């Protein structure tokens, strides 16, 4: 009997001791991984531990994400501190391009459900971004400029609390010790770098420090801010990493990681870190040197035939390269490479033809990257230099709603443009060729419209130089693997601006999307793009081409929708294939906005920035009158140009209208 009591007591004591021990441990939790060989991590998405112990968050795949967390939650009391350091590397297939980045994360869960790829870094999505109920703290290593989150550049470190709009961000770099000032670092260099995140809870100080590997921790942090994290974190949180890729093949690695609560993280042992896989082209196999004179003659014979073949191949793969192009080296593809990628531009690889040329699918031999290659015939050298400069500069920019241009190649009379391959094809194919079952539902359509608006706004305002697209239409909207609408072919029309015959104004674009003033001026502007976008909005909502020759009475979509609006039956114009399933307010917004964008008077159209605000419901679309759509119409007969008086009238009225959110401004009716 006493034995049992004794045992029970012992058990209780042990239990208490155990409880006490776990409590003590949780006050001072720490762990260290010098390489992740055999580590027990909670992984999801593409994240995996490679055979040599690298934690690879993403493995080259486009538009994907990966998460890796320490498997047990950590306990943060109200005035917690923590310290962490890790070594990472971002390895991209292209020297100057990467996407999208890595974030160190404290999160209530290990899978960040619903999070999106690309600029969302696998952390948030468009609905929960910025919501304080996320309880997510992150330090992002971001390699893309996402203007919607106010990013400072395409190579920065940012402190994120529940939102991708960083609390603070700085260009990647470090203050080297001994007063050598600030040094830049390129996150996508492929070289390992070390990051420290130190948070002092009682003093609410957060330091973030970056440095190249092997340098000691810089004394001056990259960022040192005062922030109270106690409200944004929960008692129990997981620590780990999140990463996402965009449209460029990029791998994100963590080589080692150390973490401690309420103390300084133990230093990593650099000598024990796993090594990164070799990057860059494989070394060419050495040619065997044969020193035997006996077979010299054989060699000579072979050489002769090689010269013959080489000459033939030279001609086959001949390119045009001028001095001014040298600086575009990284964006220049060799014709041979493209020829191999498309298996000699086989018919079977043809994705489509039309517009400016034929488009082929290809797989680049060097990195197995899927691409779309557009062959544009172009005889005139006029404007080519400008055009290439423009496409290369745009190619450097990345936006989720623009088809990424990877580079180009020039041959005699021909330009080849290499784009990212979009797995879901073009929007018009789905709109018109898809069966009722696999058509896009309203939310997908609305998302695509917003995406295209955002891409177009980016071309108009997002970069130091304005880019007019000139050919916005559903067949130029491509859908990526995530069903994001992306604008393709930007600026291509520009090449054809100078018609071969200066007597004829060669209007470029597509019937039905062309703003009326184009027939007079022939000049693409942001307003002509807005007109095309308006036609596009109506097209996607109604599931009808802007000009439908089969509809004799209502050939013109804009007129047809306008007519229905006047009769109060605008909702009847919505695509029947939606089966009546849509959000009425959104449909009405889209139809009215489409009409407004397709206004005959250029100055009466909103800007893309305003369009975006309307679509995002940031600004309510003013309740403009139907008469407003008539402004300018009487002068439009046969399109002889605008009456100057009328133009200025429309402009001032438009401004009045745009600034009056309350009252309906009626124009021709004289203010009613
Ligand atoms: C939180 O933990 C630290 C370290 O263990 C301790 O010093 C502090 O008193 C704790 N704070 C509270 C409010 O429990
Ligand atoms: C917590 O970590 C610090 C720093 O390594 C150490 O000095 C201290 O003894 C630890 N405290 C506990 C309770 O383990
Ligand atoms: C990994 O950690 C989790 C959580 O602590 C645990 O449930 C699991 O058994 C561990 N797995 C291995 C292989 O150690
Ligand atoms: C990347 O990871 C995914 C999922 O683990 C796998 O299916 C795919 O084959 C991997 N790709 C490469 C290139 O390793
Ligand atoms: C965003 O994520 C939240 C949860 O994290 C989820 O409930 C929501 O459905 C997601 N939204 C979208 C549009 O995916
Ligand atoms: C934040 O998220 C919570 C839970 O998902 C939701 O109830 C709330 O409406 C969201 N708040 C905002 C402003 O979106
Ligand atoms: C660092 O990069 C910025 C932005 O690219 C540039 O303006 C600055 O001159 C660079 N500084 C150094 C020291 O290279
Ligand atoms: C942050 O950096 C400053 C030096 O700039 C240092 O005085 C402070 O102790 C650091 N705080 C933490 C929490 O590391
Ligand atoms: C945290 O909560 C406290 C009390 O609820 C409040 O006074 C403080 O301003 C909050 N801090 C932040 C950063 O939200």
From TrEMBL:
<comment type="similarity">
    <text>In the N-terminal section; belongs to the leguminous lectin family.</text>
</comment>
<feature type="binding site">
    <location>
        <position position="374"/>
    </location>
    <ligand>
        <name>ATP</name>
    </ligand>
</feature>
<keyword id="KW-0808">Transferase</keyword>
<feature type="transmembrane region" description="Helical">
    <location>
        <begin position="290"/>
        <end position="312"/>
    </location>
</feature>
<keyword id="KW-0732">Signal</keyword>
<dbReference type="InterPro" id="IPR000719">
    <property type="entry name" value="Prot_kinase_dom"/>
</dbReference>
<keyword id="KW-1133">Transmembrane helix</keyword>
<keyword id="KW-0547">Nucleotide-binding</keyword>
<dbReference type="GO" id="GO:0005886">
    <property type="term" value="C:plasma membrane"/>
</dbReference>
<dbReference type="InterPro" id="IPR008271">
    <property type="entry name" value="Ser/Thr_kinase_AS"/>
</dbReference>
<dbReference type="GO" id="GO:0005524">
    <property type="term" value="F:ATP binding"/>
</dbReference>
<keyword id="KW-0325">Glycoprotein</keyword>
<dbReference type="GO" id="GO:0030246">
    <property type="term" value="F:carbohydrate binding"/>
</dbReference>
<keyword id="KW-0723">Serine/threonine-protein kinase</keyword>
<feature type="signal peptide">
    <location>
        <begin position="1"/>
        <end position="24"/>
    </location>
</feature>
<feature type="domain" description="Protein kinase">
    <location>
        <begin position="345"/>
        <end position="620"/>
    </location>
</feature>
<keyword id="KW-0430">Lectin</keyword>
<keyword id="KW-1003">Cell membrane</keyword>
<keyword id="KW-0812">Transmembrane</keyword>
<dbReference type="InterPro" id="IPR013320">
    <property type="entry name" value="ConA-like_dom_sf"/>
</dbReference>
<dbReference type="InterPro" id="IPR011009">
    <property type="entry name" value="Kinase-like_dom_sf"/>
</dbReference>
<dbReference type="InterPro" id="IPR017441">
    <property type="entry name" value="Protein_kinase_ATP_BS"/>
</dbReference>
<dbReference type="Pfam" id="PF00139">
    <property type="entry name" value="Lectin_legB"/>
</dbReference>
<keyword id="KW-0675">Receptor</keyword>
<dbReference type="Pfam" id="PF00069">
    <property type="entry name" value="Pkinase"/>
</dbReference>
<dbReference type="GO" id="GO:1901001">
    <property type="term" value="P:negative regulation of response to salt stress"/>
</dbReference>
<keyword id="KW-0067">ATP-binding</keyword>
<dbReference type="GO" id="GO:0004674">
    <property type="term" value="F:protein serine/threonine kinase activity"/>
</dbReference>
<keyword id="KW-0472">Membrane</keyword>
<keyword id="KW-0418">Kinase</keyword>
<dbReference type="InterPro" id="IPR001220">
    <property type="entry name" value="Legume_lectin_dom"/>
</dbReference>
<protein>
    <recommendedName>
        <fullName>non-specific serine/threonine protein kinase</fullName>
        <ecNumber>2.7.11.1</ecNumber>
    </recommendedName>
</protein>
<comment type="similarity">
    <text>In the C-terminal section; belongs to the protein kinase superfamily. Ser/Thr protein kinase family.</text>
</comment>
<dbReference type="InterPro" id="IPR050528">
    <property type="entry name" value="L-type_Lectin-RKs"/>
</dbReference>
């Amino acid at each position: 009997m006493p034995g049992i009591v004794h045992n029970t007591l012992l058990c209780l004591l042990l239990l208490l001791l155990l409880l006490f021990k776990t409590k003590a441990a949780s006050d001072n939790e720490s762990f260290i991984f010098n390489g992740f060989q055999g580590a027990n991590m909670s992984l999801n998405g593409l994240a995996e531990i490679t055979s040599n112990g690298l934690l690879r968050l993403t493995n080259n795949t486009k538009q994907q994400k990966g998460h890796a967390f320490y498997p047990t939650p950590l306990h943060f009391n109200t005035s917690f501190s923590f310290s962490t350091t890790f070594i990472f590397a971002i390895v991209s297939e292209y020297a100057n391009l990467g996407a999208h980045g890595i974030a160190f994360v404290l999160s209530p869960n290990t899978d960040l459900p619903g999070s999106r790829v690309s600029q969302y870094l696998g952390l948030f999505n468009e609905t929960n971004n910025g919501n304080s109920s996320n309880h997510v703290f992150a330090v992002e290593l971001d390699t893309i400029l996402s203007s919607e989150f106010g990013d400072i550049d395409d190579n920065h470190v940012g402190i994120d609390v529940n939102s991708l709009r960083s609390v603070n961000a700085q260009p990647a770099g470090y203050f080297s010790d001994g007063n050598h000032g600030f040094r830049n670092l390129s996150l996508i260099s492929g070289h390992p770098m070390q990051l420290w995140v130190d948070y002092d809870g009682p003093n609410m100080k957060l330091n973030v420090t970056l440095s190249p590997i092997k340098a000691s921790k810089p004394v001056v942090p990259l960022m040192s801010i005062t922030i109270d994290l106690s409200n944004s974190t929960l008692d129990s949180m997981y620590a780990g990493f999140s990463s996402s890729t965009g449209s460029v093949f990029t791998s994100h690695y963590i080589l080692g990681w150390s973490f401690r609560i309420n103390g300084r993280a133990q230093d990593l042992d650099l000598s024990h870190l796993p090594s990164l896989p070799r990057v860059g082209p494989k070394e060419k196999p050495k040619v065997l040197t044969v020193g035997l004179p006996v077979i010299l003659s054989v060699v000579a014979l072979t050489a002769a035939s090689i010269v013959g073949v080489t000459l033939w191949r030279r001609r086959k793969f001949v390119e045009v390269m001028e001095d001014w192009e040298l600086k575009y080296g990284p964006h220049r593809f060799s014709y041979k490479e493209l020829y191999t990628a498309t298996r000699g531009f086989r018919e079977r690889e043809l994705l489509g033809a039309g517009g400016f040329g034929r488009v082929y699918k290809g797989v680049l031999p060097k990195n197995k990257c899927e691409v779309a290659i557009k062959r544009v015939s172009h005889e005139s050298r006029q404007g080519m230099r400008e055009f290439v400069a423009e496409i290369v500069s745009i190619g450097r920019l990345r936006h989720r709603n623009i088809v990424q241009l990877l580079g180009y190649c020039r041959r005699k009379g021909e330009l080849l443009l290499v784009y990212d391959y979009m797995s879901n094809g073009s929007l018009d194919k789905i709109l018109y060729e898809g069966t009722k079952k696999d058509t896009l539902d309203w939310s997908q359509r609305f998302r695509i419209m917003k995406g295209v608006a955002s891409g177009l706004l980016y071309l108009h305002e997002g970069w130091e130089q304005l880019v007019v697209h000139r050919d916005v239409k559903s067949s130029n909207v491509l859908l990526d693997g995530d069903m994001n609408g992306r604008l393709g072919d930007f600026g291509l029309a520009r090449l054809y601006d100078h018609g071969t015959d200066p007597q004829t104004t060669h209007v470029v674009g597509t019937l039905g999307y062309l703003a009326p003033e184009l027939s007079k001026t022939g000049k693409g502007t942001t307003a002509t793009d807005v007109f095309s976008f308006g036609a596009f909005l109506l097209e996607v909502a109604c599931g009808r081409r802007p000009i439908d020759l089969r509809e004799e009475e209502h050939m013109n979509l804009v007129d047809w929708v306008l007519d229905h609006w006047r009769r109060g039956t605008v909702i009847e114009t919505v695509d029947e294939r939606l089966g009546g399933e849509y959000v009425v307010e959104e449909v009405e917004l889209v139809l009215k906005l489409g009409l407004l964008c397709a206004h005959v008077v250029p100055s009466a159209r909103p800007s893309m920035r305003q369009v975006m605000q309307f679509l995002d419901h940031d600004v309510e679309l003013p309740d403009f009158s139907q008469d407003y759509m008539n402004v300018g119409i009487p002068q439009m007969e046969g399109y002889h140009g605008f009456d100057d008086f009328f133009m200025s009238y429309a402009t001032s009225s438009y401004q009045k209208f745009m600034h009056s959110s309350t009252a309906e401004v009626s124009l021709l009716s004289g203010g009613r």
